[in-house]
Design goal:
By secondary structure, the protein is α/β, with parallel strands linked by helices. Helices cover 18% and strands 40% of the residues. The two termini are 29 Å apart.
Length: 121
């Protein structure tokens, strides 16, 4: 039996705000949208791994924020130019922390989800 990753789903407060964030900060592109009775889904993909999707989920009728404390879930992206990526994310004000000893840093999306950025290799 062989399994491959399909998507990561994140609950968000504002679909368009989150879509714009992932397009601008990570170069993801819109793949599709599903509007179901109880939620709306937007699918985002990168150019190389179009079979793997980020699913942004808006629960209809949801009020208030989502609790992210003690939630270890995060996304991770490789980048081919670590220095340029870090500079862009610092300019956009979304860098949460830098772990120099590991060669990684984390950004935070509009809903507080953490995204790990790693240099390739």
């Amino acid at each position: 039996m062989h399994f491959t990753m399909a998507h990561t789903s994140l609950a968000v407060e504002d679909l368009e705000r989150s879509r714009a964030f992932y397009e601008k900060t990570l170069g993801l592109r819109f793949k599709g949208k599903k509007d179901l009775p109880h939620l709306t889904l937007i699918y985002m993909v990168d150019e190389e791994e179009a079979d793997y999707e980020l699913e942004l989920t808006l629960r209809k009728g949801h009020e208030g924020g989502y609790t992210l404390e003690d939630n270890p879930v995060h996304l991770a992206f490789y980048v081919d130019d670590y220095a340029a990526s870090l500079q862009l994310h610092q300019e956009l004000g979304c860098v949460k922390r830098i772990v120099e000893s590991a060669g990684i840093y984390f950004i935070s999306d509009p809903d507080g989800y953490e995204i790990e950025i790693m240099g390739k290799g």
